Amino acid sequence: MKPWILGLTGGIGSGKSAAAAHFIQLGIDLVNADQAARWVVEPGRPALAQIADHFGADILQADGSLDRAALRARIFQDAGERRWLERLLHPLIRQEIIEVLARATSPYAILESPLLIESGQSQLCQRVLVIDVPEAVQISRTVSRDGNDEAQVRAIMAAQASREERLAKADDVIVNDRDLAWLQQEVERLHRFYLTLRGGQPQCTNL
């Protein structure tokens, strides 16, 4: 039976990657949209040449690969540039995701994406799980984890859907404001529930 698709999302610093890792440990096939985004801009892929033509050769590293830090700095300073990049990459990323999900063999499969709502990738999913934390926790976790300053973290958050927008699209929510063991317990609880679903929805029974 073809697996149904769970969309997994959350803002930066929410812990969605830790949740995704535990779903994988439980045997669930997963495609990471960020990884798909890296695949479509690898050297030799057409998207990379278009990015270099648009932003200039200084967006490339010496080995010809994309300088992600330089690109990130450019697009978060200019919303117009960010929109140009999204128009180029989102259709390519979507196709990459579809191809990977088509090879999934677990009872359900997961699309993990920080931009699940904003990019329209949620349309590929039958159900959405949001890993949620207060914004102050997002900022403190990301600053300590990545070494970014608070202003850069806030700029990244501003480019993502708001907490309210994500929660409005959620079928399931984990509020990840405790420790990793608790998060893993919540993932296991939802996993057991998801195994009972068909097409991402509970089955009706005729009484």
From TrEMBL:
GO terms for biological process: coenzyme A biosynthetic process. GO terms for molecular function: ATP binding; dephospho-CoA kinase activity. ATP binds at residues 13-18. Pfam families: CoaE. The keyword ATP-binding applies. The keyword RNA-binding does not apply. Keywords: ATP-binding, Coenzyme A biosynthesis, Cytoplasm, Kinase, Nucleotide-binding, Transferase. One of its GO terms (cellular component) is cytoplasm. This is Dephospho-CoA kinase. It comes from Pseudomonas flexibilis.
